[in-house]
Amino acid sequence: MGRDRGSDEGFTIIETVTALTLVVITLAAAGPFFIQSFQAVARQRNQQNAVQLANMAIEQVRALKGSSLLTDRSSAKVKAQFSAAPAIVQPYLAKTFPSSDPLLSATSTSGDDAAVPTETRTLLWDGVNFDRTIYVGSCDVRVSGDCVGYDPDKNPPSWLNTPDDLQFFRVVVLLAWNNKGCNAGRCQYVTSTLVARASEPTFDIYRPSPTGPDPKQTAVFYKGFDRSVQLKVEGGQLPNTWSVVDTLPAGLTLASNGVVTGATTAGLLNQDFRFKVTEAPPLQRNVTFAVNFQIVLLPTVTVGTTSSRVGDPVSVQAVGANGWGTKTFTAAGLPAGLSISDTGLITGTAATAGSYPVTVTVTDENQVTGTANFTYVVYPGLALAAVPDQTVAFGSAVNVTAVASGGYGTYTYAATGLPLGVTLNSSTGVISGVATVPGRYLPAITVTDTLGNKATQSFALTITTTTLLSFTSPNPLAPDQTSASGKQVNLKATDNGSALGLSPVITATGLPPGLTLNGASGNISGKPDTPGTYVVTLTSTNLLPPQTSVLTFVWTIT
After folding, report:
1. Tens digit of pLDDT for each residue in 425-455?
2. Can you tell me whether residue 4 is helix, strand or coil?
């Protein structure tokens, strides 16, 4: 019966031997790779350890006073150390002068046991021996640039040891250790730093001796007003203790902490008083100095005008007196539309009539205040109702009333431009009487209240006649004129004199500049040159029989 070749009967001896041979060959090939990897890791670890040891040495050097870096380092040892330095260190030492302890003799050989030793020390770290050498020398910088060492006995630069000279110690740290991965089996790491050669500052745990302030302090007090003022002193070991040398003004006392309090009853004063200040133990230094005392009155404020009319602009200055220094002002209760500035100027326009209780406060530099309380009255605006134009036949009585409203107190009426025979009652505003001269008039009525406020209205009053002298041109019913500035004007003034068999002469007052009247012809001509509104009165006069007529109108020049 034959063997079933499709079944799995395992590996033959030859196959097994072949597989093992391949594994051995693979492992043999990978061995150098693993060895080199382990060596690289070890080399990198040693490099990191060297960096750490070098940094530790730098920090130890920085922990020392700059002036102690050379202590016990003799000139002989330093020069020998610099001469024996390996090539990797030479670039650093080339710019460094081999300074030594100036207190040692020229024959001294100390240095190996110095705080910064001149000998090489071996440090065991992570199973590896590291040889550490620390080099110390001096170098100088002029404001900026590289730090270079100069031999003071061999023509040093002129700026050496001057205020321009920035003086340093250069500290170079060398770490060396054995490792086959480095050149000649010896690895090296170098780092350096600069340390100031300037003298170490001396710190005094005590504050400066107490001194009086400069300029001299001024302490302000107000007669009859309780106040505290902290006197000032500079320096001194706290707490400072105050005492009085001169007797203080009546009502004032000094506490040991320098606070003067009280409500003085003394009169106005400007005087220096001396005080003694003693600092706390152990030194207990003291000083005596003067403080200027000023005793003044409390600030006050006055306000002049305390009333106005609705719609009238207001500008009232509140005035501060007494107190100390610059003063500022505030106000409460002012009518809507009014406000006060920091300097005390009340301005604005009151919007609503009424009585308003107001408080104005003045504050001086020491925040001491004074107040003024008063009632601010806003009166209704004074108004005079328009008087309707009046036309009255000659010989008939004129009777019209001017009516005022608002304002304050009693009214007084006055008028200008009324015809002869017509008068105004100053108390009632009634205009009455019989005009003796016909014509057209433009009387102005003015009313004044008790406070002196005024209001004015004008109206046209025409006295007509058909039998007496009167103007016919300009039209007595609408005589007002409007002309352009610089343009030629020709206006004929005529009357009915010829119809009445009269020979009147016409005159004029109030003509715009540039216009003239020909009295014989009655012609007004010329070029007006000043824009404005002018009240012109034409008068026609006949001598025998005596008759007069007036025509008043408004001439506007645009």
Report:
1. 999 999 999 999 999 999 999 999 998 889 9
2. coil
Residue 346 token pair? 């009340």
Helix (H, G, I), strand (E, B) or coil at 189: strand
CATH code 2.60.40.10 for 383-463: yes
Q: Running DSSP on this structure, what letter comes out for residue 64? A: S
What whole-number distance in Å separates Cα of residue 351 and Cα of residue 396? 45
Q: Cβ distance 469 to 425 under 8 Å? A: no
Match 């308003």 to its residue by tokens: 356
For residue 180, pLDDT over 80 is answered with yes
For 98-157, what is each residue's pLDDT tens digit?
Answer: 999 999 999 999 999 999 999 999 999 989 999 999 999 999 988 777 898 888 888 888
Return the CATH class of domain 307-376: mainly beta
Can you tell me whether residue 44 is helix, strand or coil?
helix
Q: Which helix (H) or strand (E) holds 60?
A: helix 13-62
Four-way CATH pick for 466-557: 3.30.70.20, 2.60.40.10, 1.20.1380.10, 2.60.40.1120: 2.60.40.10
- Tokens 């004044």 correspond to what residue? 448
Q: Which two tokens stand for residue 364?
A: 């001086």
Rounded Cα gap, residues 97 and 473, in angstroms: 121
